[in-house]
Every structure is written in C-alpha cells, then in structure tokens.
Design brief:
- The chain has 117 residues and is an all-beta fold.
- It has no helices and eleven strands.
- Strands 2, 4, 5, 6, 9, 10 and 11 form a seven-stranded mixed sheet that branches.
- The radius of gyration is 13 Å and the shape is globular.
- The relative contact order is 0.32.
C-alpha cells in the first residue's frame, strides 16, 4: 500500500521559514511526480508546487514563486518544500501528493502550517 508521510509543519512568524518533507513508500512505488497542495479553512485545495521525478522539472503557483522551493531526493522517494518569507496567507494544511504513471494520485494526511505573529 502506498503511503505518504508529511513532516515539518508548525507555527512560524511572518517572514519566517519552514521546510516540509514528504516520504513515499514503498520504495518500489513508481512515481511520476510529487508535489504539495494546500487548503485553508473554507477554501478549495490549491496546488502549491510540483516536481517531476525524472528530470526534476518544477511548477509553482504564482503566489509562492520566489519564496518556495520544491526539491526531491529520488533515492529516498522524498520531496521537500522549502518555504521562505512566509505570509499569513500561507496558513493552511499542506498535503503531499504523488502521481504514478497512470496519473493515479495518492495523498498524505497533511501537516498544518500556521503563519501568525
């Protein structure tokens, strides 16, 4: 059974940084892409960033360009999201996502990121 486990969320002041991690298992899971989505209370889930496993092509939401960086470690089947210059509007539950080559998506349970002074 495919499992995604997120970590790294927490409370941070505006302007601060957090680094999220998401590990996918088992290692035999054939991942095409991994990424991060987020959902704030009362709002629709939105894409934050994605990365293709082979080649490392990335895609970012306009709202996070220049502030967030997605990266991956293919050996560990892990994706990271470095979040800098955090704003209160970044407050949300962040969900890890992985897509296989059949475009079937798997989801983690989510990790809370709260940006508040």
């Amino acid at each position: 059974q495919v499992q995604l486990v997120e970590s790294g969320g927490g409370l941070v002041q505006p302007g601060g940084s957090l680094r999220l991690s998401c590990a996918a298992s088992p290692s035999t899971f054939s991942i095409y892409a991994m990424g991060w989505y987020r959902q704030a209370p009362g709002k629709q889930r939105e894409l934050v960033a994605t990365i293709i496993r082979s080649g490392g092509s990335t895609n970012y939401a306009d709202s996070v360009k220049g502030r967030f960086t997605i990266s991956r470690d293919n050996v560990k089947n892990t994706v990271y999201l470095q979040m800098n210059s955090l704003k209160p509007e970044d407050t949300a539950v962040y969900y890890c996502n992985a897509a296989d080559y059949g475009d079937y998506h798997y989801w983690g349970r989510g990790t809370q990121v709260t940006v508040s002074s």
